[in-house]
Amino acid sequence: MDFSVEIYKIIEGALKHDDDKVINYTKLMIDNLIKCNNIRQAKMLEKVISNSTFKKNQIITNNIINIPLDKESRLPIADVFYPNQLIDEVIYLNEENQQNVNTFIEYYNSRNEIFKEGYQIPNSILLFGPPGTGKTKLAKYLCSKIQLPLVVARLDGVISSYLGSTAKNIRQLFDFAQRVPCILFLDEFDAIAKVRDDEHELGELKRVVNSLLQNIDSLNNGSIIIAATNHENLLDPAVWRRFGFKLKIDVPNEKSRFELIKYFLNDNYFYKKYCNQLNILFKNFSGADIEEIIKKSKIDAIVYKTNLTASIISNHYFQFLSMRNLIDLSPNDKDSTNIKIKFLRDLDSKLFSYATIGDFVDKSKSYVSSVLNESDGDN
Ligand SMILES: Nc1ncnc2c1ncn2[C@@H]1O[C@H](COP(=O)(O)OP(=O)(O)OP(=O)(O)O)[C@@H](O)[C@H]1O
Ligand SMILES: [Mg+2]
């Protein structure tokens, strides 16, 4: 493994008397030395640090990072997740996005070689798309893969009621990311664009974000900036252009839907029997919606001490549709069952046979048949 970036940063930090920078990059180098089994050298460096008079308040992998505070509220302006807290993170994306994510990770892991040849890797990603599709999850996944702490700034928390404080908070976060190698995650990034009606503040914020994104690009200090939004149309085009990687994270396609359902159902008997039907049921649903419906069903199965059944899932599925006004269920139990039966049959008459529909609404095949009023046999 090559350490030219770390050495460069340590020297730069030492010349500028920036103790934090020196100590954090030395820590990063120690981690990387351990990864390539250079334990003796890692120990030597650890000794240098522990004998030094450096401040030890900003350590990057598993220890505590001091996050800047909002001046008025005195609350931290971000939360931190450490890679060791996120080892089990999985994400299911469509092929193109997964490919882009893999490329990003490969670039990051080869950054020293790339740097030696005089190039810099793109270190900013913009994630955009509907809610609940895995944008935050992807940031966590990258934290676990890249082994950098994830500093999550909720911009609605960063946004202060005091004029100028918001820009100051954002500047603080970027300064922080320049000193401490981390993944800075700017969630609800569009909040900057619609923070308030105050034109002065809005303009100032845009300028701050723009100029800081530019700085981050040119610094290449090992930190990564990820911004996420559900409203990409609200973003200033100048800000939009700054991001090296732009990924549209949409509702899962057929393949990732299969994977998500299988993951949430733990690949149990139930999944194997009905995976095609579930896949149709959850078409155009976000990962978060699928997870919510399956989780509620599992809880019901625990509370009522039953096995997870198709009817438990469809119960929560229809509740979900009804809550979002996507289906109008009759308050009468019998009628609402009949509405569900017709709904399922209309989804796909081959996959939803009378017997299968019966399983999903907890009725017999002949009951379903009578509701659908079809004389010819099924299956
Ligand atoms: N593609 C996915 N892969 C794995 N899990 C997912 C995926 N999409 C959603 N989930 C599940 O849904 C939960 C919520 O997703 P997440 O918070 O990442 O969505 P989001 O896109 O950030 O939403 P929002 O735009 O509202 O912030 C996740 O914790 C995860 O369990
Ligand atoms: Mg999110």
Q: Can you walk me through this structure?
A:
The protein has a six-stranded mixed sheet, sandwiched between helices. Helix 2 (19-35) runs antiparallel to helix 3. It contains 17 helices and six strands. The protein is of the alpha/beta class and 379 residues long. The chain folds into three domains: 1-59, no CATH class; 60-248, P-loop containing nucleotide triphosphate hydrolases (Rossmann fold), CATH 3.40.50.300; 254-372, no CATH class. Strand 4, helix 9 and strand 5 form a beta-alpha-beta unit. 54% of the residues lie in helices and 7% in strands. The chain starts with a helix and ends in a 7-residue tail after the last helix. Bound molecules: adenosine-5'-triphosphate and magnesium ion. Adenosine-5'-triphosphate is lined by residues 91-93, 131-137, 230, 252, 260, 287-288, 291.
User: What can be said about the biggest beta sheet?
Assistant: 6 strands, mixed
Radius of gyration: 26 Å
**The CATH homology group name of the largest domain:** P-loop containing nucleotide triphosphate hydrolases
Count of helices? 17
Q: Give the spatial strand order of the biggest sheet.
A: 1-3-4-5-2-6
How large a portion of the residues is in β-strands, by DSSP E? 5-15%
**What gap, in angstroms, lies between the N and C termini?**
62 Å
How many distinct domains? 3
Q: Bound small molecules, which ones?
A: adenosine-5'-triphosphate, magnesium ion
The helix/strand series, from N terminus to C terminus, equals HHHEHHEHEHHEHEHEHHHHHHH
The CATH topology assignment of the largest domain is Rossmann fold
Mean pLDDT: 85
